[in-house]
């Protein structure tokens, strides 16, 4: 049994230039509303790897893929990417459909 309303999830792996991690975190937080203000965005999270230095993961959930793709090609997303690009030395993007979601006790 899957969720009644599927969620489209995007996972970015970002390699950040050494010594720029704190500034990257601050900038990501400052410009994050460009993503979360989009009506189809369900939230986003920034996580830092404990195993690989300078590696961050950004996960964002979307109501559906077409509206994510609309945002991905928008001027707002281009501006957001432009502000984060100077920190990056590489990265990847993976997209997926959430099959099950189970909440914790928190």
Question: TL;DR of this structure?
Answer:
With 106 residues, the protein is of the alpha+beta class. The protein contains four helices and four strands, in the order βααββααβ.
Task: Furnish the topology, listing elements before pairings.
Elements: E1 8-16, H1 21-31, H2 33-36, E2 41-48, E3 55-62, H3 65-72, H4 75-84, E4 88-97
Antiparallel strand pairs: 1-3, 1-4, 2-3
Structure characterization notes:
The model has no long low-confidence stretch (mean pLDDT about 95). The protein contains 4 helices and 4 strands. It is globular, with a radius of gyration of 15 Å. The chain has helices at about 20-30, 35, 65-70, 75-85; strands spanning about 10-15, 40-50, 55-60, 90-95. The longest helix has 11 residues, at about 20-30. The chain is an alpha+beta fold. The chain has a single domain (about 10-95), classed as Alpha-Beta Plaits. The protein has a 4-stranded antiparallel beta sheet. This is Antibiotic biosynthesis monooxygenase family protein.
* Overall strand count: 4
Going across the biggest sheet, name each strand in turn. Answer: 2-3-1-4
Any idea what the radius of gyration is? 15 Å
Kindly report the CATH topology.
Alpha-Beta Plaits
Briefly note the structural class of the backbone: alpha+beta
Sheet with most strands: 4 strands, antiparallel
Percent helix, as a range, is 25-40%
Q: What is the string of helix and strand elements?
A: EHHEEHHE
| CATH architecture classification | 2-Layer Sandwich
Into how many domains do the coordinates divide?
Answer: 1
Residue share in β-strands: 25-35%
By CATH reckoning, the class would read Alpha Beta
Helical stretch count? 4
- What is the overall silhouette? globular
Keywords: Monooxygenase, Oxidoreductase
Protein name: Antibiotic biosynthesis monooxygenase family protein
Organism: Nonomuraea helvata
Domain ABM: 8-96
